Amino acid sequence: MEQRGRLTLPTDADMVEETLRLKELLGADALRDCDGTTMPDELLSADAKKYATYYTTRKDNEWAKANPEEIQQEYLISDRITARSNTLRIRLMKGFHTEQLKVNEIDDPKRWWEVIDRTTGEVVPTDQWEYDKTTGEVEIHTIPYHQYTVSFLAFLIWDPVHMYNFITNDWKDAPHQLTFDVRQPKTQKHVKEKLKQWCIEHPDIDVVRFTTFFHQFTLTFDEQKREKYVEWFGYSASVSPYILEKFEKWVGYKFRPEFIVDQGYHNSMFRVPSKEFKDFIEFQMIEVSKLAKEMVDIVHSYGKEAMMFLGDHWIGTEPYGKYFANIGLDAVVGSVGDGVTMRMISDIKGVKYTEGRLLPYFFPDVFCEGGDPIGEAEENWLKARRAILRSPLDRIGYGGYLKLASEWDGFIDTIQHVVGEFRQIHENMQGSSAYMAPFKVAVLNCWGNLRRWMANQVHHAIWHREIYSYVGVLECLSGMPIDVEFITFEDIKNGILDNGEIKVIINSGDAGTAFSGDKNWIDEKVVTTIRRFVDNGGGFIGVGEPSAYQFEGRYFQLSDVLGVDREMNFSLSTDKYNEMDPEHFILEDIDGEVDFGEGMSRIYAQGENYQILCMDGEYSQLVVNTYGKGHSVYFAGLPYSPQNCRILLRAIYYAAGMEDEMKKFYVTNVDTELAVFEKTKKIAVINNAKEARETDLYVHGKKVMHLDLEPMEMRWVEY
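The structure assignment produced for this chain is given below.
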């Protein structure tokens, strides 16, 4: 087994001897610094690659203070205020932290701000409002009892990630780091020269880890230094008059702040993206990739590798966008919160290698009294491991303060076990891919492949009651023997189903969101194309409110395909005669209740070809339906669990009409899974439970072995 390599460890100035000890113990071949830490000079001669975190947009307050007009900017929207007379004054910074943000009083408010009557949706003419610099208020001529907002530009006078780290780690003495706009010519020239000088002054650094390039995802704090708004996919902080004037010339129409603030939703991933916002993303990807390539070329000219952190200032570097590969990066590194976020990193093309930072970060919010870093590490690895077997990272590593990890009893032993299993995977697969089902599954939403493995998330692997029942679908898929595509409604109309590779479509989400599809479901070409696809033998799996849009007497526009609809109180007068029959291929492995998470209320079966497998009182939770030669499956919700992974796997094979194919490679216990590497004749059987499990292994439909697995064990067998 590989004893060394594929591992990056963090270090700090006071951890030289311990770093060297752990480097040998764990077989690390790379060392890195982190935000708030320093790479000790004594380690620069160590036998390992040295990573240095590099910030293009901060850690140069002298420059930022000398060029205040080129500090980064963000579009903000004020509170919604109700007018009670013919005039109204709105204090812009109410609810925002003035140490982080400062109103842009340099550029013309009448050109770049927008006042909107939110009762009518109309823009208030610029001659009907004025900005008062002395009070920081906008005075508006109003209609009594209408609500108003002001959308305005503000300077980011404290880098959001530095502010987050400052608060999280309780830093006391570190000065607030300003953040400057590298897109602007003067700062751009300065930053390039500074990078060249840095490369000269750091000859021992092998890998420059850009964190990231130019624009921070939206991370805004309130007056009490609490997170007010976090949108990991948000473009609100990628704006300035300089950038927006270039956008107007590129796109051919006038920019509006509303394209960014989006009624106060800030273009959340859950919003169906407007044409204007998609145009802005496209423009930013083009411009950011060009400039990022120039930074990467500088690094390469000094014989160093360029690595991008998929986080912090990653906006505009969409890794599944059309322009990402043009940047010429050697590597991408990102934080692995679960199987979904692991796949988000490992599936990236256009780089030489991918690296994942496993959790927990070595931060005091985890390594503290009441914290459970070992438990977090185990949970993180259980989810990441099953996905790594399908689409492996090339490397793993950790971040934070090494001292916290080394002093926590038993934690280093846990890391040692994780690293050992990670190396076993690479040794046994030998560059080959795991067996996949002989068909593809497509996840259908408004974002498609641009936001691959990012669907139904707010930001990085954060649990929310509203979404876990949907993210679970992707988490299950991340470790399945299934080739997953992410497609849009435009892809459907453009014939992506015609080549026969896709056998099952999954649509999962709440009505009105980008993930369910909203108005796309009253597009005649979309619904008829999918009906034809299923009628001819395809499969459709819906979770939550698939195809949902109230129109022409139906809520689920594919209610005929799904065999279900949702009672919106309009058809209470119509009797429904639903009865449960749980005997079905999908539930053959399942003992006990099925977990539907938050579920979906008032789902009733309808038509002539349905079978209800699970019910909640009088309403349905799991329904299958036959539609012509094809099949559909409806789930009220599907949070991640090993049991739900098995249910979804069976549902996919059923929907594809290929049930017999499922046991080509198979394990019986729902807490166990397998990955088969036909090239190397190796099978990995994993126990996803923290208790011992027994399971039978099937190869080509025949039982070949009974296995007794230890808690969390990964067993390699030959076939």
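Interim note for the steering committee: The two ends are 19 Å apart (CA to CA). The CA atoms of residues 181 and 479 lie 40 Å apart.
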